[in-house]
UniProtKB/TrEMBL annotation:
<feature type="compositionally biased region" description="Basic residues">
    <location>
        <begin position="1"/>
        <end position="13"/>
    </location>
</feature>
<feature type="compositionally biased region" description="Basic and acidic residues">
    <location>
        <begin position="14"/>
        <end position="61"/>
    </location>
</feature>
<protein>
    <submittedName>
        <fullName>Uncharacterized protein</fullName>
    </submittedName>
</protein>
<feature type="region of interest" description="Disordered">
    <location>
        <begin position="1"/>
        <end position="61"/>
    </location>
</feature>
Length: 106
């Protein structure tokens, strides 16, 4: 009887040790999985930060290009106004010459 109790205790200890070992293995796998997940999260955060930096740089470049376009548009408008003014002056001058009987070469 004592031998069977001793054997039973050994089995119980072995079972406990096996369960403990299994739990430790599972915990280790979870930690490794968490580490991999954390690594993926860090990689994703880095990629997002890089993408944000790229987009910010591109946005700044676009704003600069739009400002340059506005500047060019303003210059073109000014030139158009000058051309319109010159066209009016030339048309008036041509009318004056026509009224004086001087023909303009065409």
């Amino acid at each position: 009887r004592e031998r069977s109790r001793g054997a039973q205790r050994k089995r119980t200890r072995a079972e406990r040790a096996a369960r403990l070992e299994e739990r430790e293995r599972e915990a280790s796998e979870r930690e490794r999985g968490n580490g991999e997940t954390q690594g993926r999260i860090r990689d994703l955060a880095l990629k997002l930060r890089e993408k944000d930096d790229d987009m910010s740089r591109e946005r700044k470049e676009l704003e600069e290009r739009l400002a340059k376009c506005d500047e060019c548009e303003g210059q073109l408008t000014s030139w158009q106004e000058q051309l319109d003014s010159l066209a009016q002056i030339l048309a008036a001058r041509e009318r004056d010459l026509d009224s004086q009987g001087v023909r303009s070469p065409r």
